[in-house]
Amino acid sequence: MPLLPALISFLLLLTSPAARAGDLLPAPQGPILLAVSGDIDRTTDGQVALFDRQMLESMGIITLAAISPLDDEPVQFQGVLLRRLLAVVGAHGTAVEAIALNDYVAEIPIAEAEHHDVVIALTRQGHDIPVREMGPLMILYPIERGLDTEAVAARSVRQLSQIVVRDGATPWDGKSVVARSGPASNDGSSLAP
Ligand SMILES: Nc1nc2c(c(=O)[nH]1)N[C@H]1C(S)=C(S)[C@@H](COP(=O)(O)O)O[C@H]1N2
Ligand SMILES: [Mo]
């Protein structure tokens, strides 16, 4: 299906007044890049929401500068906002478990993704990201004061393959929020109120 009609039908589906818990998202046509499960209202097969590249792109691509494991300095990435994906699947709960191809798991508070432009990157400098370069999907945080912490680095999941929506073990404590005053904390252990 050409991109524009696919995009329009996808957006219509999302905004339709008939959209409700249990509605099915369009089934993926290409290779599956991401599986979203857990506490979600919309799936592709009644169990899990599977996404191919085109489906992810149809949610709206944003560009951000970030530093990947391969970079010494910021380069341009393009991807989908995590909060946009969570809106598409109708996520409940307070956190997502982001799971990598190598079974690495990190918990990301949903409130953090609402507050910051946490991105699921699809391309690096205009190109798909090979698995050996920590793709095809990678969670990136914007370069922002207050986000340069080890905790945030640990949530920057490379080779992302699954997201499970659930209630978090620990509610977000706001530690990655940009402090309005006072010195920037760089270890996440102290935060100006
Ligand atoms: N797939 C995967 N992603 C991962 C990790 C991992 O072990 N596997 N480690 C995390 C941790 S603890 C850190 S500090 C950063 C390291 O990212 P870097 O290689 O850009 O420094 O990746 C995060 N993402
Ligand atoms: Mo780390």
TrEMBL record:
Name the record gives this protein: Oxidoreductase
InterPro entries given in the database record: OxRdtase_Mopterin-bd_dom, OxRdtase_Mopterin-bd_sf
Oxidoreductase molybdopterin-binding domain: residues covered: 75-167
Keyword set, alphabetical order: Signal
A Pfam family reported for this protein in Swiss-Prot or TrEMBL: Oxidored_molyb
Signal peptide segment: 1-21
